[in-house]
Amino acid sequence: ELDNLSDAPFSGDEENGGSEERKTEINGNWIPATSITEAKINARAKRRLRKNSSRDSGRGDSVSDNGETLKTGVVVPTSPKGKVLDRRSRSGKGRGLPKKGGAGGKGVWGTPGQVYDLEEVDIKDPNYDDDQENCVYETVVLPLDERAFEKTLTPIIQEYFEHGDTNEVSEMLKDLNLGEMKYSLPVLAVSLALEGKASHREMTSKLLSDLCGTVVSKTDVEKSFDRLLKDLPELVLDSPKAPQV
């Protein structure tokens, strides 16, 4: 029957004779060699297509189940990834709101208006210390050294020459730990006033008068003026009228 259905332009005998030479027996059935070759070629093409599709997965365009091309980054609604990113309830009963009213999860403070009770110290805690309830914590400010002293106080005194408020200077100095450098405060103020105007010298005199007894003591002021008299030859280089002033 296969020989009779052939479209080859040979007679019956010629077609039978040629077909016997080109047929191969597989599992007891005679199959033409040309069909076997075509099947191998098709199988190789399919394997190559699968390899290329696996390499290009995740980049480029993909093909959906309906045969339509989808651009990269577009998630098919029926894909598992789309279900994971969906905040709606999978059972279909939820309203899509966050769990616990937004009070659950890591790093969350709680619902608005929630008040927390004071945490009681467990006496049975192995790290419990009787003195920890009576501890007083204070902010420790390190004393200024000579370089940091001049760098910190120079802007404060220069700003005082502009606003003239001694109370503001006093409050700013109280936040600093002058340490043993207190006597250097009048030295720095007078040195800056010598380089300025006459009004700056008057303001410096008022500043030292207001700071004496609160920020610096009388002993510190005496020590500072002794230091100024010793450094007078160096002050003359910058302010020639320093001795008269």
UniProtKB/TrEMBL annotation:
Residues 1-111 are annotated as: Disordered. One of its GO terms (biological process) is negative regulation of DNA-templated transcription. GO terms for molecular function: RNA binding. Residues 99-110 have a biased composition (Gly residues). Keywords: Cytoplasm, Nucleus, Repeat, RNA-binding. The keyword Repeat applies. Its main location: cytoplasm. The keyword Protease does not apply. Residues 148-245 form the MI domain. Residues 43-52 have a biased composition (Basic residues). One of its GO terms (cellular component) is nucleus. It holds the Pfam family MA3. Gene3D superfamilies: 1.25.40.180. It is found in: Cytoplasm; Nucleus. PANTHER family: PROGRAMMED CELL DEATH 4 (PTHR12626), PROGRAMMED CELL DEATH PROTEIN 4 (PTHR12626:SF3). Belongs to the PDCD4 family. This is Programmed cell death protein 4. It comes from Casuarius casuarius. The lineage of its organism: Eukaryota, Metazoa, Chordata, Craniata, Vertebrata.
